[in-house]
Design goal:
Blueprint: H1 2-27, H2 55-61, H3 82-103, H4 108-119, H5 128-151, H6 156-160, H7 166-194, H8 201-219, H9 228-257, H10 267-273, H11 276-297, H12 299-309, H13 334-350, H14 354-389
Helix pairs in contact: 1-4, 1-5, 1-14, 5-7, 7-9, 9-11, 9-12, 11-14, 12-13
C-alpha cells in the first residue's frame, strides 16, 4: 500500500502537465485553420461611432484578464474618418484571428508552450489537487486488488481462467473497482483542466465546484458518475492490455536475463532472486512499453469520455420528455457517439491527443509499476528479516 501511495505522488507530479494538454486537445472544438481576413471581407462600420466600447469583445479576444470598462475600437479622435475606422476594424479582425490561433492547440508541444506562455506555468498543474486525491485511493485499490486476484490461490480468476489470460482478467476487474470509486473526483479534475484561460487557479476550483453543485441539484448525485460507462470502456480494456503486456514483457526480459533457466522458472520466483536494480529496470521497461501500446489502442474511448464529462448542459433546467429525442452527440451511447466523431472528424478525431496521452501514460505506468515493485520487494525483505529474527 505504501509503495502504491509513493508511486501515485511521484507520477501525479510529473505527468499532470501532459494530462492538462490532453484534455485541452480533446475538448477543443474541431475547427479548420483560420484564414487571414482580407480588407474586402471586413464589413462597413461607417455609421458607428469611432470610439465604441466593446468590453465583452475585448475580454473574448484578448487572452489576459481585461478589467477595463471599455475597449476602444479606434483612436481617441471623435472625428475619425471612415478610412481610419476601416483600418482599425481590419486590425482588430487580424488581432482576433491571432488570438484565436493562440487559443487553439495543434500538438502536444504546441499546447505546452501556449499554456505556459499565456496562462503561466502553474496552469500546467491545474487539477493537481483532485489528481492526488483521486490517484492515491485509486492506485491502492487497483494494485492491491490486482495482487490479490493474481496471487491468492482462492481467487476465482486463478481457479477458472487460464494462466495466460489471468493478467488480462485480473487487471480488468481491479480497474472496474477503482474507476467506480473515483469517478466523481475524475469528473471534477477533467472539468478543471478543460476550463478556459483567463481565470485564476482558485477561481477555476470554485467555478467547477459550483457547476457540479448545480448539476447535483438538477439531476441528482448519480450525475457525478456521468461518463463512467465511457471510463469503463477506456480503462477496462486498457488495464487488461496493460497487465497482459506487462507480465508478458517481464517474462521475456526474464528469459533474456536467465537464458539457461528453462521454461519452468516462474515469474514470482525470478523476481525474488533479482536484485533491486534488475527489478527496477525490468518493471520500468515492461511497464512503459505495455502502457504505451494500451494507451494508443484505447485513445478513442478517452476522447469520448473527455468530451462527455466537459459537456456544458443547462444543469439548472430539466429536459422535458418531448425534447429527450433531440439528444446532442455527447449525450448518446458510447458506440453512437464514437461513430459520430468518426463520421464528422474522421480517424484523426478519434485519436485526437494520442501523443499527449501516450507521453503521459507510458512514463506514468513505468514510474508507478517500478515504484510499486521496488516497494513491494523491500517490504517483503523486511518482513522476512523480521520473521527470521523473531
Amino acid at each position: 500500500m505504501l509503495s502504491a501511495v509513493s508511486g501515485s505522488l511521484l507520477t501525479s507530479l510529473l505527468v499532470t502537465p501532459l494530462d492538462v494538454v490532453r484534455v485541452r486537445l480533446q475538448s477543443q472544438p474541431n475547427s479548420s485553420p483560420l484564414p487571414r481576413p482580407s480588407s474586402s471581407a471586413i464589413p462597413s462600420f461607417s455609421n458607428l461611432p469611432p470610439n465604441l466600447g466593446v468590453t465583452a469583445c475585448c475580454r473574448e479576444v484578448f487572452w489576459v484578464n481585461n478589467t477595463s470598462p471599455v475597449c476602444l475600437a479606434s483612436g481617441p479622435s471623435l472625428t475619425a474618418s471612415v478610412d481610419s475606422i476601416a483600418s482599425s476594424t481590419s486590425s482588430a479582425a487580424e488581432c482576433a484571428v491571432d488570438e484565436t490561433r493562440r487559443k487553439t492547440y495543434t500538438s502536444t508541444l504546441d499546447g505546452l508552450r501556449k499554456i505556459a506562455r499565456n496562462e503561466g506555468l502553474p496552469s500546467l498543474w491545474r487539477g493537481l489537487s483532485p489528481t492526488l486525491v483521486m490517484a492515491i485511493p485509486a492506485n491502492v485499490i487497483y494494485f492491491t486488488g490486482y495482487d490479490i486476484l493474481r496471487s491468492n490461490k482462492r481467487s476465482p480468476i486463478n481457479q477458472l481462467i487460464p494462466d495466460a489470460y489471468a493478467p488480462l482478467m485480473a487487471g480488468s476487474v481491479a480497474r472496474v473497482a477503482a474507476a467506480s470509486v473515483i469517478s466523481p473526483i475524475e469528473m471534477f479534475r477533467t472539468r478543471m483542466q478543460a476550463a478556459p484561460s483567463g481565470t485564476s487557479g482558485m477561481g477555476v476550483f470554485k467555478d467547477t465546484l459550483v457547476g457540479l453543485r448545480k448539476l447535483v441539484q438538477a439531476q441528482g448525485y448519480t450525475s457525478l458518475w456521468r461518463g463512467l460507462t465511457l471510463t469503463m470502456w477506456r480503462d477496462v480494456p486498457f488495464s487488461g492490455i496493460y497487465w497482459w503486456g506487462y507480465e508478458a514483457g517481464r517474462n521475456r526480459l526474464k528469459d533474456l536475463r536467465y537464458p539457461l533457466s528453462g521454461q519452468d522458472r516462474s515469474l514470482s520466483t525470478s523476481q525474488r532472486d533479482e536484485n533491486h536494480t534488475a527489478t527496477f529496470v525490468d518493471s520500468f521497461l515492461a511497464g512503459a512499453t505495455s502502457g504505451a501500446v494500451a494507451s494508443i489502442v484505447t485513445t478513442p474511448f478517452d476522447v469520448g469520455k473527455t468530451r462527455q464529462q466537459v459537456l456544458e448542459r443547462d444543469d439548472h433546467k430539466k429536459t422535458p420528455r418531448s425534447e429527450k429525442s433531440a439528444l446532442r452527440p455527447e449525450e448518446r451511447s458510447m458506440p453512437r457517439f464514437l461513430y459520430h466523431i468518426w463520421k464528422t472528424e474522421g480517424t484523426a478525431g478519434l485519436f485526437r491527443g494520442w501523443a499527449a496521452r501516450c507521453l503521459k501514460v507510458a512514463p506514468a505506468c513505468a514510474i508507478m509499476i517500478s515504484s510499486y515493485e521496488i516497494g513491494k520487494k523491500m517490504a517483503k525483505n523486511m518482513n522476512e528479516r523480521r520473521a527470521s529474527e523473531g
